[in-house]
Each structure stands twice: as structure tokens, then as C-alpha cells.
Design goal:
Length: about 160
């Protein structure tokens, strides 16, 4: 388990994130070796916590994430990043959110139902797969799938809107 304890100011924050990246890279290289070889996933549970630890430096967090993205091609792994859109809806945070959407191959957005609460459906997922496109097109040309979901005790059910779940 990797834990980022934060830095002091300026260059110290960037140095701390560089050390975190080095630790992630070492774990990835270790996981690639021997009988563990194959595809695996690096998960960042909440980008906003990285930004808090970096004293609000979105630029340093983006640099760290760009380094992590390089692992996807160099080390044959996937990178999954959780970001809370509501935190970044202000003018200050919209740049980070837009940048993460730009570099993502797949964007999954979970949201409450637009019609309000329901007993048999807890929310909706929108999935945009930018990686399927042969050429980069405007957002309206991207394939979007919509699903409903119901959270259960040990997981969730996903189904098309209007279908039997």
C-alpha cells in the first residue's frame, strides 16, 4: 500500500509526488516479473485527495498523472482514476476535470436518476469509450452507453434503461 503524506511547499510537493511515482513504478515493475506477468491495474481512489496533499497544486497532480499514464504503454497496465465531478465544478477546478477527460480512453459517470428516487433503480451510468474511435472526433461523435444500476449488499446489478433487472 502506498501512502502519500504530503510535502511542504513548491518544489518539495513535486519531489514528493515524484517519489510517489517512483514507488508506484517499482510496484508495477515487480508485478510484471515472474508468475505475476500479465495485465493489471493501477488505481487512484480519489484525485482530490492528491490535490489536497499537494496543497492545491493541480499542475503537480497533473504531472504525476501524466507519468502514471506512461505506465499504461510502457508496462502493459491500465490506470483507473476516481474523480468527484462535483468537487471540480467550480471555475478553479474545471481545468483539471477537462484535462483528465481529455487524456482518458474511457469515462464512466455515475449519477442519480434524473427522474428522482426509485426503489428498483438507484442511479444511472454513462459510459463514453473514446478509445474505440479510429480518429479523434468532437464529443458528439463518441459512442455513449447508458445503464441503470441497483446497489445490492455484495455488489450491483447493471441493466439497460427500461429492461427487466
Amino acid at each position: 500500500m502506498l501512502v502519500y503524506s504530503g510535502g511542504t511547499q513548491g518544489g518539495a510537493i513535486a519531489d514528493s509526488l515524484a517519489q510517489l511515482y517512483s514507488a508506484v513504478q517499482r510496484v508495477v515493475e515487480t508485478c510484471r516479473a515472474g508468475e505475476n506477468a500479465g495485465r493489471f491495474t493501477v488505481m487512484i481512489d480519489d484525485v482530490s485527495l492528491l490535490e489536497v496533499a499537494a496543497n492545491g497544486s493541480a499542475d503537480d497532480v497533473l504531472d504525476f498523472l501524466h507519468y502514471c499514464v506512461t505506465l499504461t504503454s510502457e508496462m502493459n497496465c491500465s490506470l483507473v482514476v476516481l474523480i468527484h465531478e462535483d468537487i471540480y465544478s467550480s471555475e478553479d477546478g474545471v481545468g483539471l476535470l477537462a484535462h483528465l477527460r481529455y487524456i482518458a480512453d474511457l469515462v464512466i459517470k455515475a449519477a442519480p436518476l434524473s427522474t428522482g428516487l426509485a426503489t428498483d433503480v438507484h442511479g444511472q451510468l454513462s459510459v463514453v469509450n473514446k478509445g474505440m474511435l479510429i480518429e479523434q472526433r468532437p464529443a458528439k461523435g463518441q459512442k455513449v452507453w447508458s445503464f441503470h444500476f441497483k446497489v445490492k449488499e455484495n455488489g450491483a446489478d447493471f441493466f439497460y434503461p427500461g429492461s427487466r433487472h
